[in-house]
Design brief:
By secondary structure, the chain is α+β, with helices and mostly antiparallel strands. 48% of the residues lie in helices and 17% in strands. Helix 2 (35-42) packs across helix 3 (46-58), helix 6 crosses helix 8 and helix 7 packs antiparallel against helix 8 (173-193). The longest helix has 21 residues, at 173-193. One of its GO terms (biological process) is negative regulation of DNA-templated transcription.
């Protein structure tokens, strides 16, 4: 879990934050959780977890199975996210360009935004079936392990980047230990070529290249990612062929969206 601000931050609603942390305990493949699971994942007391789970159930964000004595996410969670997706006109603008690139390179092209220590996918054009676990809209992946996350770090202001990196070092120290050097290389790559890479760090059989939009959309830095099977990106194809195609696609989206 990402760390909370200091206790003396009077503007921060800790009870609300703890309730949201309960909802964040659910991950793909983890459909049902009990109070014991919430305690283990959040570090909160049993009494606090019980109170928060009850409240979230009453509000429709959780569903309680009295027989199995566990909780599942409720429809309230899904309905909260839809207005955000529906308001993102950039998704409709980018979709045909993304689909065209996915067909050209026989890969998967996605658009994402940051969510704490992860990137969340807001549009996806599936590509080559050899890439396992192809993401869907709403899927989250660790920032440090993927080209998309590294491109987000490269695109934001130095101050925003430093704050994010400090939080990542605290929230996911194991990932920082493993991928910190690749992140620094990605920042260098972005300065040189305008893109960031991942060579099997997210999936062993997939290479990725990512580039951000030139301007924020609704105060969000959005990033396009192109993933291709590792065996099809041998040699310098990822650098010399796929990366330029991705940059051209991003430029076309920016023009279509009136960003340049």
């Amino acid at each position: 879990m990402d760390s909370f601000p200091d206790d003396d931050d009077r503007q921060f609603a800790f009870t609300l934050a703890r309730g949201l942390e309960i909802l964040r305990c659910f991950l793909p493949g983890v459909a049902a959780l009990g109070n014991k699971d919430f305690v283990e994942r959040t570090g909160l007391s049993k009494a606090t977890v019980s109170r928060l789970a009850y409240t979230l159930t009453e509000l429709g964000y959780l569903r309680h199975d009295k027989v199995a004595r566990n909780y599942r996410l409720g429809g309230g969670v899904l309905s909260m996210g839809y207005p955000l997706l529906a308001s993102m006109r950039i998704r409709q603008i980018a979709r045909p360009f993304m689909r065209e690139l996915a067909l050209q390179v026989r890969g998967s092209v996605s658009l994402g935004m940051r969510d704490q220590s992860n990137m969340v996918y807001i549009e996806c054009c599936p590509g080559d079936k050899r890439i396992r676990a192809r993401p869907d809209v709403g899927a989250v992946r660790p920032i440090l392990r993927m080209a998309m996350g590294r491109a987000w770090l490269a695109a934001v202001t130095p101050q925003e980047r430093e704050v994010a990196l400090n939080r990542l070092r605290i929230a996911v120290p194991d990932q920082w230990q493993l991928y910190g050097a690749q992140v620094q290389q990605a920042l260098h790559d972005y300065q040189q070529a305008g893109v960031c890479f991942s060579y099997g760090d997210m999936q062993k059989n997939a290479y990725g290249v990512a580039a951000p939009l030139c301007a924020q959309i609704d105060a969000e830095t959005l990033v396009f990612n192109c993933a291709v099977p590792a065996q099809s990106a041998q040699g310098r194809r990822l650098i010399d062929d796929i990366a330029p195609r991705l940059l051209t696609m991003v430029s076309n989206v920016e023009i279509a969206a009136g960003l340049r």
